[in-house]
């Protein structure tokens, strides 16, 4: 599948005059891990598919130029033809897919000059992050990050504040209850191993019943309904978390969360790499997920202040917003409450729970402080690079990935 959505795993040349140290290390390890993990028939398939990359990338460039070309022309004055030719040049000479041209705004000349510094999703999630696991990593356990109920329990055991779990459901049964009776509050349901906000539901409490859509259920009815619903996938039931009042004018009644990425430094101590605040952009959204149409704003690591927000950059309506597009609440320049406490929380969490070099933390800022919602051992870096308008390949993240790939002794090798 990689050949259809990402560049082929071939050796990439370093452009003349480019001052790249970390990126070649990351990409060479990605190339090795893809080819060495592949069975003979997978290698054969890759070789047979390699000639399709120029054709596929040209077709994708044409599609994106037709869909998004008018917006970029209004912004930069570049015609669709010029945008198409720049996408093809990046794809054929530098193995950069056409989607990255719009996501990372490579149609801006200053950004395009640094195009080779952007880390592609396959190079990190399929390469560096896969390799940078301990030698004794247990693939069956997958750390607590994938299973949300297990993760919440490990946070409690480690003395870390995290979103509590009230009950867990699987295969048509109530697998665990943490309280004898459900509290009379709004509740939140999500898949035990879901991604991207898929399957999330908010159940509102009113008059001894919980309501969602056409359902109005008492406690026994709700527990039975969720147990039955878990036949197609495990569920966790949690209290509905509510943001700090200072964020009420930009979260549309949903929970806005920080995506904070930490990495182990050269002494294997966690440090914050980057952060964004995610917000829903539709009034009917139950989650703030960036890949589900939400928007995100960059967070200044030193001050906790926000910059302008945007989406993935792949829609004709894409804009950068100083104020929320629905509520009009100020985004640009807003100072986040409890920012210092959030930084401390996730660096301590990485030190106590992390067996990965890089971890992405989802953190909610509540009225009385920050709480960890989830963690991701394979965090997507598109959101940081897109929203901060800067590549990570030669920044601190790229430097640390290259360091651990080259000098780390605890980690696997390709």
TrEMBL record:
Tell me what this protein is called. Answer: Sugar-transfer associated ATP-grasp domain-containing protein
Give the superkingdom in one word.
Answer: Bacteria
Q: Which residues form the Alpha-L-glutamate ligase-related protein ATP-grasp domain?
A: 145-385
Name the source organism: Dongia sedimenti
């Amino acid at each position: 599948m990689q050949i259809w959505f990402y560049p082929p795993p071939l050796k990439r040349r370093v452009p003349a005059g480019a001052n790249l140290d970390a990126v070649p290390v990351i990409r060479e390890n990605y190339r090795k891990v893809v080819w060495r993990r592949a069975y003979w028939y997978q290698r054969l398939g890759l070789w047979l598919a390699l000639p399709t990359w120029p054709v596929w990338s040209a077709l994708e460039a044409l599609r994106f130029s037709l869909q998004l070309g008018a917006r970029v022309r209004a912004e930069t004055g570049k015609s669709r033809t010029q945008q198409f030719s720049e996408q093809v040049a990046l794809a054929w000479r530098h193995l950069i897919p056409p989607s990255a041209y719009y996501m990372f705004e490579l149609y801006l000349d200053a950004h395009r000059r640094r195009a080779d510094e952007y880390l592609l999703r396959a190079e990190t999630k399929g390469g560096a992050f896969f390799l940078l696991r301990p030698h004794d990593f247990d693939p069956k356990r997958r750390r607590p990050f994938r299973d949300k109920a297990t993760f919440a329990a490990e946070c409690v055991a480690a003395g870390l504040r995290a979103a509590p779990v009230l009950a867990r459901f699987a295969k048509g049964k109530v697998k665990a209850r943490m309280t004898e009776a459900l509290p009379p509050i709004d509740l939140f349901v999500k898949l035990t191993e879901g991604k991207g906000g898929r399957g999330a539901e908010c159940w509102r409490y009113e008059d001894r019943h919980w309501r969602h859509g056409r359902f109005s259920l008492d406690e026994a009815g709700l527990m039975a309904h969720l147990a039955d619903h878990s036949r197609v996938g495990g569920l966790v039931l949690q209290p509905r978390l509510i943001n700090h009042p200072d964020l009420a004018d930009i979260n549309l009644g949903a929970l806005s969360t920080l995506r904070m990425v930490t990495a182990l430094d050269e002494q294997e101590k966690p440090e914050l790499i980057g952060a964004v605040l995610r917000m829903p952009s539709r009034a009917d959204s139950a989650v703030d997920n960036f890949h589900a149409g939400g928007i995100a704003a960059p967070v200044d690591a030193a001050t906790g202040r926000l910059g302008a927000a945007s989406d993935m950059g792949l829609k004709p309506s894409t804009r950068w917003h100083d104020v929320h597009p629905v509520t009009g609440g100020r985004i640009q320049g807003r100072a986040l409450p409890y920012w210092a406490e959030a930084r401390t929380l996730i660096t301590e969490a990485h030190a106590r729970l992390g067996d990965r070099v890089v971890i992405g933390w989802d953190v909610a800022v509540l009225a009385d402080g920050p709480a960890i919602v989830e963690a991701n051992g394979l965090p997507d870096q598109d959101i940081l690079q897109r929203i901060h308008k800067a590549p990570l390949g030669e920044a601190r993240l790229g430097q640390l990935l290259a360091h651990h790939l080259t000098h780390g002794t605890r980690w696997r090798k390709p």
